[in-house]
């Protein structure tokens, strides 16, 4: 874990409320693994007080990238930062996805869940991989071309049917699994809204496939000290910022509501 002042090389709108940020941070870029995140101090005057966590979306030798949605005060201020300004960041934090050397990977990204999965897609060496991207509507689909450029077979699901499969991404996943059949060795990686992750966990148990999910939780310290981000697991309470954000799907104890 490193703390550094990273220079903003680029910070611009991709579409709608979605932004892309490129930072010069060679020390973090060198260590980063898919699934890990950084915790960003948004302003020097601690307004907002807490750092904001963002997944590492891509890395190059000297740079790291984020893809983020401006949803509130912190990300709104971040979206107005200019090229040449500096951000105080801590990272890489958390654990990463596992990297099987063989078998078939299915990446399932709901909304902003594409952010860590593109980095994973770049690093996975397993062949014949599929990326499922879900969004409310066509204009909110992110990274379709980027996954295609990596050789992934991309399938889209939209809630309103404006592109691809009409319905939930978990229904599209069910269709893909049916086509593959139970004997195909596979690993599902998922990031997105909690109900989606909960359903994938249920499916992984029922249909007996391995799955890793990346959880989001409100964070205070981001480094395992405050216990503000714990989730219930079969091993007891675990910190999303330290033992996570990536968990084996079957590990999480889902409450009826919320988690
Ligand atoms: C490990 C991790 C990785 C993340 N990666 C990304 C990413 O790559 N791109 C991205 O756009 N977002 C990501 N997030 C979510 C991001 O951290 C929040 O959207 C951000 O902190 C919101 O800050 P804000 O001040 O703009 O919004 P706030 O004003 O704090 O809140 C606005 C809304 O966002 C919700 N929210 C705030 N923080 C979180 C959180 N940590 N998890 C879930 N919902 C939250 C609030 O409940 C509220 O509804 C990640 C979160 C975690 C924990
Ligand atoms: S945010 Fe403090 S322990 Fe996770």
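^ Assign residues to that structure.
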């Amino acid at each position: 874990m490193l703390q550094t002042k990273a220079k903003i090389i680029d910070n611009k709108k991709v579409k709608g409320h979605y932004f892309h940020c490129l930072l010069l941070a060679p020390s973090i870029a060198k260590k980063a693994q898919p699934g890990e995140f950084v915790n960003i101090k948004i302003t020097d005057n601690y307004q907002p007080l807490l750092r904001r966590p963002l997944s590492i979306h891509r890395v190059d030798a000297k740079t790291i990238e984020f893809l983020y949605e401006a949803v509130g005060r912190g990300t709104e201020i971040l979206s107005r930062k200019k090229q040449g300004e500096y951000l105080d960041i801590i990272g890489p934090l958390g654990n990463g996805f596992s990297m099987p050397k063989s078998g078939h990977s299915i990446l399932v990204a709901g909304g902003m869940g594409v952010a860590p999965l593109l980095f994973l897609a770049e690093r996975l060496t397993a062949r014949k991989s599929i990326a499922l991207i879900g969004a409310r509507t066509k204009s909110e689909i992110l990274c379709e071309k980027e996954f295609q450029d990596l050789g992934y077979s991309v399938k889209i699901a939209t809630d309103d049917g404006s592109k691809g499969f009409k319905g939930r991404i978990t229904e599209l996943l069910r269709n893909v699994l049916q086509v593959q059949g139970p004997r195909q060795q596979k690993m599902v990686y998922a990031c997105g809204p909690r109900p989606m992750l909960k359903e994938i966990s249920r499916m992984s148990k029922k249909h007996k496939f391995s799955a890793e999910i990346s959880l989001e939780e409100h964070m205070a310290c981001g480094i395992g000290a405050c216990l503000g981000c714990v989730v219930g697991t079969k091993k007891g309470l675990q910190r999303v910022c330290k033992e996570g954000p990536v968990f084996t799907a079957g590990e999480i104890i889902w409450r009826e509501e919320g988690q």
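The chain has two domains: 2-93, 104-251.
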